[in-house]
Amino acid sequence: MIKTLLSGDLPRSRLLSALLLVVLFGLALAPFLFPGARSLNVAATICVFIVLVASYDLLLGYTGIVSFAHTMFYGIGAYGVGLALHAMGPSWWAIFVGTAGALSLSLVLALVIGLFSLRVRAIFYAMITLAVASAFAVLASQLSDLTGGEDGRTFRVPELLQPGFHLFEGEILGRAIDGKLITYYLVFCSALALFLFMLRIVNSPFGRVLQAIRENDFRAEALGYRTVIYRTLANCLGALIATLAGVLMALWLRYVGPKTMLSFEVMTDILLIVVIGGMGTVYGAVIGSALFILMQNYLQVLMKEASGAMAGVPLLANLFHPDRWLLWLGVLFVLSVYFFPTGIVGRLRTRAALRRLR
Amino acid sequence: MTTIATVAAQDSALPKLRVDILPLLLVPVLALAMLPLVGSFPTWVTLTVAGLAMGMMVFMMASGLTLIFGLMDVLNFGHGAFVSVGAFTATLVLLPMKGWVEADSILLNLSVLGLAIVLAMLVTGMLGWAFERIIIRPVYGLHLKQILITMGGMIVAEQLIHVIWGAEQIPLQLPTTFRGAFIIGDAALEKYRLIAVGVGLTVFVTMFLVLNRTKVGLLIRAGVENGEMVEALGYRIRRLFVGVFMAGSALAGLGGVMWGLYKETLTAAIGGEITVLVFIVIIIGGLGSVGGCFIGAMLVALVANYAGFLAPKVALVSDILLMVTVLLWRPQGLYPVAKR
User: Fold this and answer.
1) Contact B156 A327 (CB under 8 A)
2) Which of residues 90-129 of A touch B (CB under 8 A)?
3) B contacts of A122 (beta carbons < 8 Å)
4) What is the pLDDT of residues A104-158, one digit of tens each?
């Protein structure tokens, strides 16, 4: 049963399985285990990022394509739903229209960019996507009549998802069943389903071809696979799933804005998570996202204390300033590209495999 | 008959490469075509000079990147970091020597700018050396890792700038005599832009001469065409790599100083923001081609300026539109480098 669910791609390491279970149960029971708006927000962000990062891993880790336009697709999803809800009022129909519109726009863009530049080399694609994504971000912040500009748009969600809504009187395990909780479980379940779907994809024959292209595209082509088509398909799939992740994020935040959805920082976050978690292992997205978002939210508190302790030393205090946490992650990122390119998950798996040999 | 004639011609002189003149014409043609659209001649002159100045600055930043790519097949996504570092290093000269900056004397102003540029180029050059050593050397030939690692280097560098110079914006003052504009007829020409054009042209001419008239330049050009052959002839191409990488980084630093003074405020993101434009420029020019990069920079900047004046909304995406148009015409860029 579990094997079918995971598409035969088991964690293959006891420690990894344990970690994954911790994340899974932590997220599944988050509203009950960690009460408070902030921790629930952290949990929802982790869910969305797992999907977003795993879909990026589909490109980077499995197909060997470096794209910098992933936030663009994420933003399209978020803006699609956000603007539709803003314009049409809070209804499920608006969500559907927004999602469908966003998905089709993403698909068209991914196809065009893919066919235009994927036939050339990895570097070329990376540059083109960087250019297109930055142009898109500029457009989103400048066309303020439509998108609300830098301020973004806040909107109302259907009644079922509103925080003020109560499914029934009374509480379960000390927690009122309100709209926020329902939204959280909507996000969680969608994320879980999308994650399992991606696991299915990478372990299908299609996924094997993608890996072959990553390892040696010339040989894959020689074996009779049209690499351009496979790359473009992977690109479209990644884009569509990123769009859905954007939809989920918009529903959760009830807000869309260029800073949270389209900025380049989100892109670097994704890159950091994929590499640190483990490229080419969908599980890396889970471990990486959980670690990263937790650090983002709680490491800064620690760093504040470290910085306070070193307040006398001018440069050191700056090094540990809470806003500089990205510096340390950047260093970790560079080191992990060199020394363990398969990331945390790859590391754990190799260790387990070695132990089994012994 | 004709074959014999050509053979005879080849005997007498080495066959010359056909000069591809079409892209060269693009810039003047574009500028002239815009004249009737803009309408007034003085406005057109102002716009064109502004565009050329911006193009020169972008060229300074882009030329190193395209040369590095051409020679070593390394695309440095962290190139923008050198731009930022260059601009911030300039503050080390410009802020303490406020007296010279504020003095109403061209000589003092020029020397303080010169000092800032020299220091910035030295620092970014050394940084380039370290970057090549530590970050890039282990990943030669591995494109995927190169992109990731240089991106990581960029993040770290940007954060280090925050650590050293603080997270606030730094206002940067233009030297007194560089402020304001010359008024010729009805056209206003900003002085600083003219200076930028001057510096940019100097860089371009120097680069052109070094590449075409010196032995090092010959080796670099040969390395771009066929690195293995250069190595087989007994030259240490690795040393060439390091030299070109340092020079390219120093040029980015120079561009950073000019660009920072032009913007008059500095943030650590200044390099990251310009990176996109730089990429578009080198794609348009043809990856690895310095001449193409020059024309690409001029085109991008001119189009941005004209579009900003004629149709501000279009200006937001004018770079992309230009890139798509050029690539539809020449998929490898204006001057494709043979081996790529």
Assistant:
1) yes
2) 116, 121-124, 126-128
3) 143-144, 147
4) 999 999 998 888 777 666 778 888 898 899 889 888 888 888 888 888 888 888 8
All domains of chain B in start order, with CATH:
55-329 (1.10.3470)
C-alpha distance from B334 to closest chain A C-alpha (Å):
15
Shortest Cα distance, chain B CAs vs residue A202, angstroms: 20
The DSSP output letter for B188 is E
Helix/strand/coil (H/E/C) assignment for every residue in B253-310: HHHHHHHHHHHCEECCCHHHHHHHHHHHHHHHHCCCCHHHHHHHHHHHHHHHHHHHHH
Minimal Cβ distance to A275: which of B77, B148, B319: B148
Does residue B3 surpass a pLDDT of 60?
no
Q: What is the pLDDT of residues A195-231, one digit of tens each?
A: 999 999 999 999 999 999 988 888 999 999 998 899 9
User: For all residues of chain A together, what is the average pLDDT?
Assistant: 88
ipTM score of complex: 0.81
Picking from B122, B137, B131, the residue whose alpha carbon sits closest to that of residue B153 is B131
User: How many domains does chain A contain in total?
Assistant: 1
pLDDT bracket for residue A288 (50, 70, 90):
very high
pLDDT at B246 over 90: yes
Closest Cα in chain A to B150: A334
CA of B271, closest CA in chain A: separation in Å? Answer: 13
Query: Which residues of chain B neighbour A128 with C-beta distances below 8 Å?
Result: 283
Q: Residue A31: left if φ>0, alpha if ψ -120 to 50, beta else—which one?
A: alpha
Predicted TM-score of the model (pTM): 0.87
Write the pLDDT tens digit of every residue in A6-51.
Answer: 877 888 888 899 999 999 999 999 888 888 888 899 999 999 999 9
Q: Do A338 and B149 touch (CB under 8 A)?
A: yes
* Domain harbouring A189, CATH code: 1.10.3470
Q: Are strands A175-178 and A166-172 parallel, antiparallel or unpaired?
A: antiparallel
Q: Which of A142, A264, A327 sits opposite B159 (nearest CB)?
A: A327
Three-class HEC string of chain A = CHHHHCCCCCCCCHHHHHHHHHHHHHHHCHHHHCCCHHHHHHHHHHHHHHHHHHHHHHHHHHHCCCCCCHHHHHHHHHHHHHHHHHHHCCCHHHHHHHHHHHHHHHHHHHHHHHHHHCCCCHHHHHHHHHHHHHHHHHHHHHCHHHHCHHHCEECCCCHHHCCCCEEEEEEECCEEEEHHHHHHHHHHHHHHHHHHHHHHHHCCHHHHHHHHHHHCHHHHHHCCCCHHHHHHHHHHHHHHHHHHHHHHHHHHHCEECHHHHCCHHHHHHHHHHHHHHCCCCHHHHHHHHHHHHHHHHHHHHHHHHHHHHCCCCHHHHHHCCHHHHHHHHHHHHHHHHHHCCCHHHHHHHHHHHHHHHC
Question: Residue A275 belongs to what domain range?
Answer: 2-357
A306 interfacial to chain B (CB closer than 8 Å): no
Task: Identify the band that residue B1 occupies on the pLDDT scale cut at 50, 70 and 90.
Answer: very low
Residue A206's pLDDT is: 95
Query: Is B75 an 8 Å CB contact of chain A?
Result: yes
Closest CA to B242 of B229, B258, B223: B223
Task: Determine contact: B98 vs chain A, CB below 8 A.
Answer: no
**Mean pLDDT, chain B, integer:** 86
Query: In the block, which residue shows the tokens 């700018």?
Result: B113
Distance CA B192, CA B206 (A): 21
